[in-house]
Design a protein that fits this description.
Length: about 350
């Protein structure tokens, strides 16, 4: 991994950016995006394997999880999980499987080792993009191992990259309100640093639109930029809007932020991470494909991917289905950009012209 050399903006400077005129932010961010990628917008052919919905953390913003013993709780066996991956691959042809679930006390590290090895043995062309720092921290406690030992065992079994789940807002005062049982911000950052040192690149994420302030958002972006300047291991940054749904937090904050907020977050991220994090995703699922198209003009160069089998925000996806490769290609083209399929490491494998 190449270490980033760009200067890290101060938190105060980031907060000032967040208050600037939206159109000026968009103009600056689009200029950076055009300089780096021209007219190309990438995406990955991807499926989501939500291997369990059992979780003991109980985040107030999550409508997906079920406590142990709940009648709607489920956990896939390794055989069932592999069968699902192979079925989606046979039907659609995928390059990546994103594996994430909850903190399920019944699942240990051997489950993931067996799962990763089985997928790679039967479908070696599918990259494994899996688990969040929260799940790594739980496995380390359960198995009485260091974070590095957990990560190295998972990497040996086939883990190639990590999503940025559990980042939310990296300010502990905020985290204590929306997810009091979740790991603190320092732990999230420390596990990401260990992953990068172990040769496992990752994404960084931010969930906004709940109880955070602009100062909190600025602090979040600043912490990610600081770690990136140290390790160079973040491949992409993804901001996404809190979606109330049927969650506990949704009863207190029933309305999501507008699309303009996502455009602001995308533009500020592109400016802040210029020279640090190469890719900015559109985060289309919670704000819709039309906003994702606009986000490309506000600095985003990546559409994320197809979401075969996604369950966490399934009701949102049903309202604006962009499920298949051809759907994503059509959305990118209709926005005036050139779609390019990539792998999990953001290497372009096919450009869709015309």
């Amino acid at each position: 991994m190449q270490i980033a050399e760009a200067a890290v903006p101060k938190r105060e400077e980031i907060e000032e950016l967040l208050r600037e005129d939206l159109w000026e932010l968009g103009r600056r961010a689009f200029g950076i995006r055009r300089r780096m990628y021209g007219n190309i917008t990438t995406f990955v052919s991807n499926m989501i394997l939500n291997y369990t919905n059992v979780c003991v953390i109980g985040c107030s913003f999550c409508a997906f999880y079920r406590p142990p013993g709940h009648p709607e709780a489920y956990t896939y066996s390794v055989e069932e999980a592999v069968k699902r991956v192979l079925a989606v691959d046979a039907r659609h042809g995928i390059r990546q499987v994103l594996i994430q679930g909850g903190v399920n006390p019944e699942i240990g590290i051997e489950y993931f080792e067996e799962l990763f090895r089985a997928i790679k043995s039967k479908a070696p062309h599918i990259a494994i993009h899996a688990l969040s720092p929260l799940e790594v921290e739980y496995l380390a406690r359960r198995e009485r191992m260091t974070y590095r030992e957990v990560l190295e065992r998972l990497k040996a079994a086939g883990l190639e990259s990590m999503p940025g789940g559990g980042g939310e807002i990296l300010v502990d005062e905020v985290r204590r309100v929306i997810s009091p049982k979740k790991i603190d911000s320092d732990t999230w950052l420390r596990i990401m640093e260990e992953a990068h040192k172990a040769g496992i690149p990752s994404s960084a994420t931010m969930m906004y639109g709940h109880v955070e302030t602009l100062r909190d958002v600025a602090e979040h972006l600043h912490k990610i930029a600081q770690l990136q300047a140290k390790t160079g291991g973040f491949m992409a940054f993804i901001a996404w809007n809190f979606e109330p749904g049927t969650s506990e937090l949704g009863r207190k904050i029933p309305y999501p932020k507008t699309s303009a907020t996502l455009l602001r977050m995308v533009a500020v991220a592109r400016i802040v991470f210029d020279g640090l994090i190469p890719h900015i995703q559109t985060g289309w699922l919670t704000t819709g494909p039309e906003t994702a198209q606009l986000a490309m003009y506000f600095g985003a160069d990546d559409f994320g991917g197809t979401l075969y089998e996604e369950k966490v925000l399934e009701w949102v996806r049903a309202e604006a289905p962009v499920d298949r490769r051809e759907d994503v290609v059509a959305v990118i083209k209709s926005a005036g950009f050139t779609p390019a399929e990539r792998d999990n490491l953001y290497r372009v494998v096919k450009v869709y012209g015309g």
